[in-house]
Specification:
The protein has 11 helices and 2 strands. By secondary structure, the chain is mainly α. Among the domains are: 86 residues, Orthogonal Bundle (Cytochrome Bc1 Complex, Chain D, domain 2), CATH 1.10.760; 84 residues, Cytochrome c-like domain (Cytochrome Bc1 Complex, Chain D, domain 2, Orthogonal Bundle), CATH 1.10.760. The protein has a two-stranded antiparallel sheet with strand order 1-2. Helix 5 runs antiparallel to helix 6 and helix 7 packs across helix 10. The protein is elongated and about 120 Å long. About 4% of the residues have low confidence. InterPro entries: bc1_cytC-su (IPR009152), Cyt_c-like_dom (IPR009056), Cyt_c-like_dom_sf (IPR036909), Cytochrome_c_Oxidase_Subunit (IPR050597). Its EC number is 7.1.1.8. It catalyses: a quinol + 2 Fe(III)-[cytochrome c](out) = a quinone + 2 Fe(II)-[cytochrome c](out) + 2 H(+)(out).
Length: 279
């Protein structure tokens, strides 16, 4: 009896041990799963960041030959102030990370190369062709991430002009005037007149914040909002003031001054003429 019971107990214990061994996960399997997870996550992150960096750096997918040409142009025309490696000097800031949009704006509007020291760089005829400007933009973009040039779909001035007018009044009119005519700032600086400025340069100015202007990135003002602002500004160019003479679009100050000088002056002149005639 006891022998039978012992044999039965031995069989039960052996079966239980076999089940435990069969259900136990090997330590190597756990390590393998962790490694697979890390490799998958790291690979996905590397792919995402490299794609995003490529899009930001090159903007339009510049070729290596274009980058090389831009490097030569930069060394010959810009390195004096910004350094051979574009890391900046006492005369000019670092350009690493400013992106192709900043280069296209500054060089395309003639503000750079700088003609003379002053409170701010003045717009003047561009010193380089569009191809040369694009080459320098590609070279600077290759040095570090930064805002790329805008897509043409946002530059057609075919957005919502009413929404653009509201956005412009909220974000831009305090410096540029509600009609985009510009205005004076402190220490000899000024916000320029926006009439005649290309859609691309308006967009790039919002995106990069040149000189005294704040940066309006895509989190502050979305690309479509920027397109609406451009639509509003181009609408103003195409539609003259319905009230007649614009007086520089400077608002009630210039209008009041006009009335004070010419209106009251005319009244005084008429009074003098009537008095002289009655005598």
């Amino acid at each position: 009896m006891n022998l039978r019971k012992a044999a039965s107990t031995s069989k039960t214990t052996g079966a239980t041990s076999s089940k435990k061994r069969a259900g136990r996960r090997s330590p190597l399997a756990t390590v393998s799963l962790i490694l697979v997870g890390l490799l998958t996550t790291g690979g996905a992150y590397a792919l995402f960041t490299s794609t995003a960096t490529a899009d930001t750096n090159t903007g339009s997918g510049a070729s290596q030959s274009q980058v090389n040409e831009g490097k030569k142009l930069f060394a010959a025309n810009c390195a004096t102030c910004h350094g051979l490696s574009a890391a900046g000097t006492a005369s000019g800031p670092s350009l690493i990370g400013v992106g192709s949009a900043a280069v296209d704006f500054q060089v395309g509007t003639g503000r750079m190369p700088l003609a003379a020291d002053g409170p701010q760089a003045l717009e003047k005829p561009a010193q380089f062709t569009n191809a040369q400007t694009q080459a320098m933009a590609a070279y600077i973009a290759s040095l570090g991430t930064g805002p790329s040039e805008p897509s043409s779909k946002y530059l057609g001035a075919d957005g919502n002009a009413a929404k653009g007018a509201e956005l412009f009044r909220i974000n831009c009119a305090m410096c540029h005037n509600v009609a985009g005519a510009g205005g004076a700032l402190t220490e000899g600086k000024f916000a320029p007149n926006l009439k005649g400025t290309s859609s691309k340069h308006i967009y790039e100015a919002m995106l990069t914040g040149p000189q005294n202007m704040p940066v309006f990135n895509d989190l502050n003002i979305t690309p479509q909002d920027k397109a609406d602002i451009i639509t509003y500004l181009k609408y103003l160019e195409k539609n003259p003031s319905p009230g007649g003479f614009q007086l520089g679009d400077l608002g009630p100050v210039s209008e009041g001054l006009f009335i004070w000088i010419f209106g009251l002056g005319a009244i005084v002149a008429i009074t003098v003429w009537l008095t002289a005639r009655s005598n």
